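Submission checklist for the structure archive. All mandatory fields must be present; incomplete records are returned to the submitter.

[x] Identifier: Putative rhamnosyl transferase
[x] Organism: Jannaschia helgolandensis
[x] Residue count: 280
[x] Sequence attached
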Amino acid sequence: MRPVIGLCRFSFVGRGDWVAWRGHDGDDALRAETASMLYDEARLTRRFWTFENLLLASLKAQTCPDWHLIVLTSDVMPQRWLDRLRDICASDPRITVEISSLNDVNTAMLPTVAEVEKTIGNTDGRTVQFRIDDDDCLSNVYVERLQAVTAAFSEFKAFSFTMPKGLVATFYDDQPPQAYELELPFHSVGTAALLPPRRAGDSTIFSFGHFGIGKRWHAVADYGPPGFFAVKMTDHDSAQITADAGGKHAAISWDALEARLATNFPFIDLPGLRKALAAG
């Protein structure tokens, strides 16, 4: 069975999906501006809550425990928060923290991916990688279903994987909290791939846009149970979600959300989530 490695950006100051960094290498002014926003005390308090209670809780609840997680952050994160991140991640040997001075997600991740591959006995430089952020979480059957696809596609040079059905909760400063259902293939949460053989280790899952990755190789879309639960807050670098009739997000009640979370996200404390994030 091929190792499954998750790559997570935790308030990383650098080029990734952030709109402000498109077309930029990241000069000192942009890096300082990004750090000031990312490391705001209130924001980090919320992010650590979601990291522990959503992402890590979802991984520890997996029906298949054969996963590894690399958590990338920047060396300019305030020291007490870096210490806290290390302490949290030290509780599970499957989690590796990479603290980088680099400005690019892919470049910063590559050496750590190679090291984790070596540690877990992978010798051909090819792992199944999935992308995840610190405020998202995965269905408790995600790794099991990804591993089943990996076994079925073991002879392929490359493949991509998505669980398109998901659930979303929004916590914006200027509107009440709202819950949604979403069905969107290759949504960023949990998009995965077995990448082609790398040229001297030059690629990670973040080397490819998540919506485009399903068109590169053989693609599997698992329309079984919801694959992810994501939260969106005011401090996100993306357009606000609204319940307009033409949007991809279908508004549902909080009671409906709680019912849909019960089977595959039993670790989520919905009242606790609302209490922790609604003020943000």
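[x] Structure attached
Curator remark: The radius of gyration is 18 Å. The first strand starts at residue 4 and ends at 9.
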